Amino acid sequence: MTLSSRLSEVTDRVAQAATRSGRSAHDLTIIPVTKFHPSTLIRELHGLGIRDFAENRHQEARDKAAELADLPDLRWHFVGQLQGKKARQVRAYAHMIHSVDRASLIDALASDDAETRVFLQVNLTDDPARGGVAAGALDELVEHALAAPGIRLEGLMAVAPIGADPRTAFARVRELSDRIRRVAPEAVLLSMGMSADFEEAIAEGATHLRIGTAITGNRPTDG
Prior knowledge:
Layout: H1 3-20, E1 29-32, H2 39-47, E2 52-55, H3 58-67, E3 75-78, H4 87-93, E4 94-100, H5 103-109, E5 116-123, E6 133-134, H6 138-147, E7 151-158, H7 166-180, E8 189-191, H8 198-203, E9 208-211, H9 213-216
Parallel strand pairs: 1-9, 2-3, 3-4, 4-5, 5-6, 5-7, 7-8
């Protein structure tokens, strides 16, 4: 399949999933995850109407953002684990940061002079080594984000655990979203759903879909 046909297929599936859930596809943002892919692929997707792109490694994201600075309306989403010492560099080019999971990272991103749009990543597993804040510590992190200068809390991000039922996992994120909106009513967005489970994510209220191989095809290298 060509890049155009893969994008068309995903777009159709997104629209159908939205309809089944009584939602509009216009309320969903498809974000191709372009890690390890060349800038030419991003240019081609931009030509097909895509404006949002996700990367998970700072150096690669920074270099692509610089190389593609001529493209109008291009928005970068950072979705990988982020070191505090790199936070301000990522903030310089990222439209949104989806992987904020600790108070120290919020502090590193905070600024009186710039606004940073963030999702708080929730860990849906019992493994503390995986990215994300534990559900039991989420409320405290929300309060920290709300108090930090220049931090705009958009909502929650999560990855469905391997081997788990994704619909159940995403329903848990939706429940957590409902909970935090009692103190953060504007944090209404949900970044969840990837190539294998975005339809289940849509059914549970996802607004931002981080879709890799279903659109881009297999990676040319594992880096």
